[in-house]
Amino acid sequence: MIRPALSDTVFGVAAGGRHSALTVLRLSGLRCAEMLAAMGAGGLAPRYASLRSLRDGQGGLLDRALVLWFPAPRSYTGEDCAELHLHGGGAVLDGVVTALANLGGRPAEAGEFTRRAFINGRIDLLEAEAIGDLVAAETDAQRDQALLQMQGALGDIYSGWQKRLTRIMATLEAEIDFPDEFVEGGHSNPVEVDITHLLQEIGQRLEQDKTAEKLRTGLSIAVVGAPNVGKSTLVNAICDREVSIVSEIPGTTRDAVEARISLGGVPVTFVDTAGLREAGDQIEREGIRRARDRARAADLVLFVTDTPGNYGLPEFINDIRTIKVRNKSDICPGASDGINVSALRGDGMSGLHAALTSEALRLARGRTVPALTRPRHRAALVDVVDHLLAATQCQGVEFVAEEVRLASNSLARVSTGAETDDVLDLVFRQFCIGK
Ligand code: GDP
């Protein structure tokens, strides 16, 4: 758990590392300038790259490196910051890190630079989350969504709602303080209409944005079918690499094997499950039980057979969206109600790929509007909706005002970070060291 003491000066590798040409070591804290000067990197001009000889406590040369100096408050963390562009390799990095530690610095925790930026008011929690998402983005669509949030699009929506709640509260407070100015129930119409509109808008967003959460976390597609129908071969063909063990002996894939690819910008994890059949030893039976669990938890099931004709689905995947695939069309031709492919020869695979991509996009469509991508936001907005609903059902202006105030507090939690330390830990723990 991170509890940054802001008096500490911290350092962390932001890029590169042991096996790279360069390593970027980042520093932040009150004693940055003093520590750098002690290592021979004094007299730095702000935001310029200066070449310096870095030395240890005994005056030994550690590296000739570029040093960038970002004095507070115009830095990433809002504190004095520096970047050391060192030569790559373990020895240089170890020497510099040891020298910094000897001068009183300490290694940064994961996400500590961004957490400091948040504590020092440089960014709000929404921007911090967006930075985390951007760094973790694997696909174009994930990147676009993170950038949208980073530019404040989501924050604008929340602050618009917050302003409307403040206006409603002001009307209610006025009615509480100056009851004579209002005819009996005088506020009720405009305030009720405003609350109802807000409820509708937030409710709609909560509904729409379930798909966007999928874009951030990725979809899971379980590949299910009897042993030996070609499930592993199919996953390998879709993912274009050897992920699963292909074998002629039924029951080879005894537990789920996973492969992650991007379909139309949506990150997708294929879960190649153990073949479904009644026989088999204890380990295989356990594999089959897990296969059923994985299929039930998946967003989409690929149900594979290798014989022509129409076929029903096993009961346990009845209510999960399923694409039927009929494999081995090369050796047993004939029509079926699934997509006909030969995973081995590649026949029909582009059609299957297109069907999978359109399904992935449907489930987690690429967006041009910012989305609620995190359960944290969803939980807070559900609270807002609950309080606003309660406000519409209360009698007495004081009670209505109290519910609106609670709704406003819940909304503020999302971006201002009036969150508990545990929630903050959860947000920043997902970052890497040096970010
Ligand atoms: P799984 O048990 O369902 O995962 O099946 P595998 O992928 O291990 O394949 C079982 C056997 O079927 C292997 O010998 C594969 O080479 C073969 N196989 C898979 N797909 C095809 C196909 O499209 N055509 C032919 N002829 N054989 C295939």
Would you mind describing this structure in some detail?
It contains 14 helices and twelve strands. The chain is an alpha/beta fold and 435 residues long. The protein folds into three domains: 10-122, Probable tRNA modification gtpase trme, domain 1 (Gyrase A, domain 2); 127-211 and 371-428, tRNA modification GTPase MnmE domain 2 (Four Helix Bundle (Hemerythrin (Met), subunit A)); 219-363, P-loop containing nucleotide triphosphate hydrolases (Rossmann fold), CATH 3.40.50.300. Strands 3-4-5-2-1-6 form a six-stranded mixed beta sheet. The longest helix has 25 residues, at 153-177. It is flat and about 80 Å long. The two termini are 16 Å apart. The mean pLDDT is 82. It binds guanosine-5'-diphosphate. Guanosine-5'-diphosphate binds at residues 225, 227-233, 246-248, 252-253, 275, 327-328, 330-331, 342-344. Residues 225, 227-233, 246-248, 252-253, 275, 327-328, 330-331, 342-344 line the site of guanosine-5'-diphosphate.
